[in-house]
Amino acid sequence: MNKQHLTMAASYVAGLLFSLGLTVSGMTDPARVVGFLDVAGNWDPTLMFVLGGAVITTFVGYRFVLKQPTPLLAKRFQLPGKQGLDARLLTGAALFGVGWGLSGYCPGPAIASLGGASVPLVAMLATMVLGWVIARRIA
What domain count does the chain have? Predict the structure, then answer.
């Protein structure tokens, strides 16, 4: 198996594990996200624990991986070069947050939920793609 096929297989397995984790944790249910945001009502803290687990895993994983001279399936690490905050980043983050709060989906869970497509899910994905198109044109 050549490196390109191995990279594709590793990407597939990573996506499958991510999707499985989202499904098992209940994060493909938009009601969980909306419940997390309802701090004055019937608050659901589940999302906080999922996010906490992701932060811990990423923190430990980066420490281990970045000690390696090169990635297993690439010539070099591809890390973000930009370190600061600017208006574009903050605007994008705000739009992402508003969309997530209104729909209950962020991109990962939305794609993982495609098997049970609904009108709100399809609408969210369509507006997400529209946002990408607009962002590429104004960049």
Answer: 1
pLDDT for 83 equals 83
Vertex 132: Cα angle to 123 and 85 (nearest 5): 120
Distance, in Å, from the CA atom of 47 to the CA atom of 35, rounded to the nearest integer, reads 9
The predicted model gives 47-57 an average pLDDT of 91
The mean pLDDT of the chain is: 88
Compute the distance between CA of residue 31 and CA of residue 80 in angstroms, rounded to an integer: 32
Contact between 104 and 34 (Cβ < 8 Å) = yes
pLDDT given at position 109: 86
Contact criterion met (CB below 8 Å) for 139 and 125: no
CB 124 within 8 A of CB 105: yes
Q: Residue 55 sits in which domain range?
A: 3-138
**Which pLDDT band, with edges at 50, 70 and 90, does 65 fall under?**
very high
Cα 80 from Cα 55, distance rounded (Å): 17
Whether the Cβ atoms of residue 36 and residue 44 lie closer than 8 Å to each other: yes
